[in-house]
Request: fold
Amino acid sequence: MLRVAVIGSGPSGIYTAEALLAARPDAVLVDVFDRLPAPFGLVRYGVAPDHPKIKSIAGALARTLSHPSVRFLGDVEIGTSPIVAELRAHYDAVVYAFGAARDRRLEIPGEDLPGSVSAVDFVSWYSGHPDSALEAELHTDTSAVVVGAGNVALDVARVLAKQPDDLAGTDLPQHVLEVLRTSTVADVHLLARRGPAQARFTTKELRELAEIAGLDVLVDPADLELDALSAQTVASHRDVARNVEVLRGYAAAQPAGGGRRLHLHFWRAPTALVGTGHVTAVATDVTHLDETGRLRPTGATETIPAGLVLRAVGYRGAALPGVPLDADAGVVPNEAGRVLRDGVVSPGEYVVGWIKRGPTGVIGTNRSDAAETVAALLADLPDGTGAAGLDPAHAIGWEGWLAIEGAEAAAGLPHGRGRVKLASWDELRAAASGTSRAAGSGEPDGG
Ligand code: NAP
Reply:
């Protein structure tokens, strides 16, 4: 029997378990560890609450995690107890699937002013991540800026721009919904430092903005004029051409005067967050691409008022004690999923997902990524060696997770909502151990 420990129960970790089961149906046991009491990683703590179709991937992930040859071991912090060396001693293979949990920084003056928040923290807040300490302030101004032109920027801009009632049907924690109800933000400005042909949005996410009730999406047609390089990109990439077409539709549309506005600005590179004591504006350089494709300031500048700035410029991987990390790239050094220590393949250690390849791609990308890692693992280790595995006494297992799910369903009842997430360690642990009031009686459990 091959015994494999997977560190991280997000999509890449669970797809690893799935691929192992598919290849060795009766000859593998997989323990999937997670630091958090709840599984599913960014499916639970990253995918926006108003994207239920993407969130429903959790159903398929749950089938793998509840398979008789797989154990979910939540609330176990690898690196503290047990440490990585213990895992390596007790399993035939260890697969690192702990993702990229930190934010990339802008590295500009004023970045740490109050009111400047990384999108990673904002997403954790509205997702009810138990580590979130953010007290989001949405009532200090009518204008907010989102920096970045990726799907995370669109997610956070949408959550800010939507009417709170349109989010009440989601599993947003109750306290988050209440803060969103206090929001005075009417204008959300999204700043892309390059042009529409370089933006990293996916077209579906861009189109979805048109369906938001009471929201005008505003684009300056001048921002959509294509330089020669951008025109080439549009001509050679259908997805980029579709994005530009959707943006042209927004630029041509007559605003309906719905009360909230999402301004999509291109060619605006933030140079400083402005304010004394609290952010009040974002200073930007107007930019263009030179003939070699490098981003250059035109010499013009623009300052956009904002009492809240969300920095959505990407995630980055962080170290786990005992695991090598290429700090610049934010990934565990590897060759097709085999971990490298000092440039040499380290037997029995593998890596998958964002901590293997960087924070790119959609959830499904992790399935092919896991297939590559598992192929390497099985080529190296066709059979098990009788490794015993570990049994951390305090781990929250699958039954504990089901109890959390039950408590979350019960927590929604008093608010007339469906499932509502529990957002603190205490609530999650209490629910898992069956001592949550919400689990037993249907009474509210906060969150
Ligand atoms: P991303 O797609 O890499 O986008 C990051 C954005 O930040 C880029 O537009 C980048 O611009 C910009 N940026 C970086 N440094 C900057 C700076 N110093 N100043 C201004 N802008 C800067 O990352 P992400 O949005 O965090 O998404 C991560 C991954 O998750 C992506 O693969 C995304 O598609 C995926 N995701 C998918 C969904 C979905 O499918 N619905 C939802 C969320 C996330 P440059 O291109 O100029 O560097």
In short: DSSP finds 16 helices and 18 strands in the chain. Residues 89 and 335 are 22 Å apart (CA to CA). Confidence is low (pLDDT under 50) at residues 437-447. The chain has two domains: 2-101+317-396, 105-313.
